[in-house]
Amino acid sequence: MTGQALSRIEHAIDGRHPARSILRLLDLHRGKVLAAVAFFTVKDTPLWLLPVITAAIIDVVVAGGPVSTLWIWAGVAVVALAQNYPNHVQYTRLFMGAVREIGADLRNALAARLQALSIGFHSRANSAVVQTKVVRDVENVEVMLQQAAHPLLSATMVLIGAVVMTAINVPAFLPVYALAIPLAVLLRAILNRRSAMRNASFRREVEQFSARVGEMATLLPITRAHGLEQTAVTRVAHGAEGVRAAGFQLDLLNGRFASLSWVSLQLLGVGCLVLAAWVSITGLIPITPGQVVLLSSYFALLTGAATNLLMLLPIIARGTESIRSIGEVMQDPDLERNEGKRPVTDVRGDLALEGVGYRYDDGRSDAAGGRGDTGARPIRPALSGLDLDIRAGETIAFVGSSGSGKSTLLNLVLGFLRPTSGRVLLDGVDMAELDLRTFRSFVSVVPQESVLFEGSIRENIVYGLGDVDDDRVLDALRDANALEVVDAQPDGWHTVVGERGARLSGGQRQRLSIARALVRDPRVLLLDEATSALDPESEAKIKVALEHLMRGRTTLVVAHRLSTIRSADRIVVLEQGRIVEIGSHAELIAAGGRYAELDRVQSA
């Protein structure tokens, strides 16, 4: 999706005004929608024309002729009915095509917005709930447009046709039609508020249930290993019960309203028929038998159309609630701001931290650089007053106890977080002035747990790079000590690794992750506990691979195992968000400080 198209969708969606949002979405496809309405107007002609034909034929029968008039009206009816098929096909092609494009636009816009939202947003959001918004809520909007458009347009055409033909034939009867409008408005007002509340409650229950199911899938190995299957089933069952109860209450409300609407409007239709017959019999207004049928038919069509529209209110309510849900993502302000900033075209790899501090507010990280909720209760700073110069090609390791700020520091260098005080410099330029998306094309990250998608080994290694020469991939695999992993697979590097690389061991996944980093030839490399979860044999192989990966690159390493970082140019010891020691392994051991204490503990 282009930036311009994304901007149009973002402008169209306003979670506070769902109806306005729907009109704006349709306006984005104005040409197709207007053409579809034109075809609908023509194809729906029989709906309001057939009562006229019926009334005319009845009057011919009552008058006893002439027969030729019957054939004229019959011909008009055939033509009116025959044109319905081609025009209906054109209407469907245009309008449903526009609806499907709106659905695709919404999904693409949500995906683009999720990529633009900060890491802070994603740390707060549940992935299953986000998935529900992209899949279920967009589908609800599509269903609403598909199912509501036809009855709404049909009711409009019937109303216009009925009013015009009645004004021509029996103008004195026009005020009777007005009775249907306040009744329909009253019925809608009765339902509207309660329906909105019930739909909001049902939506929240579905999102919570999706979160429970996602949690169950993630924890399945832990659940099975500890014999907690029944506990997991019970947690999901509790969520399913919430969905059932909320859905049942919504169904009851819709059922009561559907019956009330149908009975009220049918009684109004019967009343119209009796009134027309009484007026004709008493001679109060000169009305022919055919005109009695005409009036009764039109009123039946109007009440039927109103009933259909009122029956659609639950679908419309569900669709508007989904617009609100989509708006929660599209209007979330926690964005990583890169527009208009200087693009990074070359990176030497010099990094500097000048008085850098970072504070999480109420568990919320704000990668957009803005302030959190002013009422949030601040906690201890994650980092405070960090000053550090890192030269291009240097390997810097960060150690310290859990919660000392190591991972926060890496996220600051990546630009996932913005300093709340001080600044981070890249090659002498404040990173706040740079388009960090362009900077990250020069960066590779090897996390503690490598992330692979369900594709082939080769697709995982060259992810996002387009066409990559086979020799370049082979070199990356060789330097990552991963050729043996590929050779052991039945289809070589075309072997599908399964969801999250489930068909490979942890060490194999990590070596492929290193190959993915190597093939990008990064200038800056971030290693976050890259060997901590591995057995000694896998760790030894990955150490060799990391030596190839780190050579000539600015490398920042976070590690708990001090044995893995002894060759680092400098080791930075962090405690409570502050630098307490800097030096080589030998220098820090000789100093006998915090690092020496950690080394003694691990060596014991």
From TrEMBL:
Q: Name one GO molecular function term.
A: ABC-type transporter activity
SUPFAM superfamilies cross-referenced by the UniProt entry = ABC transporter transmembrane region, P-loop containing nucleoside triphosphate hydrolases
Q: Does the entry feature the keyword Transferase, yes or no?
A: no
Topology relative to the membrane: Multi-pass membrane protein
Q: Which PROSITE patterns match?
A: ABC_TM1F (PS50929), ABC_TRANSPORTER_1 (PS00211), ABC_TRANSPORTER_2 (PS50893)
Entry's Gene Ontology cellular component terms = plasma membrane
CDD domains, A to Z = ABC_6TM_exporters
Q: Which residues form the ABC transmembrane type-1 domain?
A: 49-318
Tell me where the transmembrane regions lie: 33-58, 70-86, 152-168, 174-191, 265-287, 293-316
Report the protein name in the record: ABC transporter
